[in-house]
Design a protein that fits this description.
The chain has eight helices and eight strands. The strands form two sheets. The protein has a six-stranded mixed beta sheet, covered by helices on one side. It has 296 residues and is of the alpha/beta class. It folds into two domains: 77 residues, Muramoyl-pentapeptide Carboxypeptidase, domain 1, CATH 1.10.101; 164 residues, 3-Layer(aba) Sandwich (Collagenase (Catalytic Domain)). It binds zinc ion (2 copies).
Length: 296
């Protein structure tokens, strides 16, 4: 009997033969991000070679790399890039609908336009609390300045709760230490966790720097999920699943057209001036000495 990874092994044309563990990791990756159906122990249905090739091709198409249907070097490298831990394909029929490279809606929205948010936990000393709070405010404003949505920080019950958590943290989406998965968020809905965002506490979160992981860029992405957007296959979109690096000054940031189209399909356009949705200016980032005090 052929297992999925044996079949996938026959797709690899690279000179350096991948180990069974590499191939198995590829299948795990494709399954985790929705390109392959989860194993079903009841039907014990095996993947066909064509099915596996098709899943590699749709991953490549989504990522914007050559659609070879093989686990070539570019594909393996893409699979190793830091990214959001939510799947790219939700539901099998979605694969067929993804003809155009564009945004995707998850199917639920907030029924109200005034949303509240709170920060439950903060990142380690690479960012101060004030900077973290301002970055989160600006990341929400990126969506708010283009729609009729408004976001207000609260210390009480909040629609959108944001936390920095590490490893397994009780929601079935464990984080994996530095690199790999960076964050995830829960779609709009009625449960207590709906709209919440978790950032991997083991990343070195930074702001507008070459090193570390840019909190603003990842937060804008995750809030797209909190508001009802899924991953986009568009070339230029903050909702691409892979980490894209810093996106510049948060107070000057504007969403790419694909994301704008997606969010306005859900909540309509803003009628008043976009500036009205912007939070106060960013605090000056304090430089923290490498061996300085760890309190904030
Ligand atoms: Zn995501
Ligand atoms: Zn989580």
């Amino acid at each position: 009997m052929l297992t999925a990874w044996m079949l996938l092994g026959s797709l690899v044309l690279s000179e350096a033969k991948p180990t069974a563990r590499d191939i198995s990791k590829g299948v795990d990756w494709l399954t985790r991000y929705g390109y392959l159906p989860a194993p079903d122990p009841y039907s014990a249905q095996q993947q066909t070679l064509e099915g596996l090739r098709a899943s590699v091709r749709s991953m490549q198409r989504f990522a914007g790399i050559p659609e070879t249907g093989e686990l070539d070097d570019e594909t393996v490298q893409m699979m190793q890039r830091p990214r959001c831990s939510l799947p790219d394909i939700i539901g099998t029929s979605e694969l067929m609908r993804r003809r155009r490279k564009r945004y995707a809606l998850v199917g639920t929205v907030w029924e109200k336009k005034e949303l509240t948010w709170r920060l439950d936990t903060f990142p380690a000393a690479s960012l101060t609390r004030d900077t973290t709070r301002a970055l989160i405010g600006y990341a929400l404003a990126a969506w708010g300045q283009e729609t009729a949505l408004s976001f207000t920080e609260t210390q009480g019950e909040a629609d959108l709760r944001v936390g920095f958590v590490g490893g397994s943290h009780g929601d079935g989406y464990p984080f994996d230490g530095p690199g790999g998965t960076l964050g995830h968020a829960f779609f709009p809905g009625v449960g207590p966790i709906a709209g919440d965002t978790h950032m991997d506490a083991d990343e070195t979160w930074t702001y507008n720097k070459d090193e570390g992981t840019d909190l603003f860029a990842v937060a804008v992405h995750e809030f797209g999920h909190s508001l009802g957007l899924s991953h986009s296959s568009a070339e230029l979109s903050i909702m691409r699943p892979y980490y894209q690096g810093t996106v510049g000054n948060p107070s000057k940031y504007r969403l790419p057209p694909d994301d704008l189209e997606g969010i306005q399909a859900l909540y309509g356009k803003r009628v008043s001036s976009p500036g009205a949705a912007l939070p106060p200016p960013m605090p000056t980032q304090r430089v923290i000495p490498p061996h300085g005090p760890t309190h904030l």
